[in-house]
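#lab-general

N.A. 3:47 PM
ok so I finally got the sequence cleaned up, no stray characters, all 145 residues accounted for. can someone with queue access submit it? mine expired

B.Y. 3:52 PM
send it over

N.A. 3:53 PM
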Amino acid sequence: MSQNPLKEALDTLKDTGVRITPQRHAILEYLINSMSHPTADDIYKALEGKFPNMSVATVYNNLRVFREVGLVKELTYGDASSRFDFVTTHHYHVICENCGKIVDFHYPGLDEVEHLASHVTGFKISHHRLEIYGNCPDCSNKETH
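B.Y. 4:20 PM
back already:
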């Protein structure tokens, strides 16, 4: 990933013929800078002051466009609202079972597991997904007090 993920993402959109509107630019920038894997609603609330005529549907539509060109991943866990993650490098998620917070976790060693799985089964592996569950430090601290 380059020094400027926003510029790269905007170039990707241009290359795929997606028009860059001020809303798209703002949603993308928010996603890149957000480490919290926001829901569409979170994004809407964060940007509604800047774009008073923007609706939640606008946010969803733009997230769909970003997902289709491969810039954003939609994370669905159980029946909670989808959260959106700007695609940088391969990473995994550690999820708090109590408050739902999601934290990125990098572990390149799992690429070897894909190779092994392919070798042993003859499958052509496309991807894998790993989720780790527990209680985040904030929730753990609340329990002990």
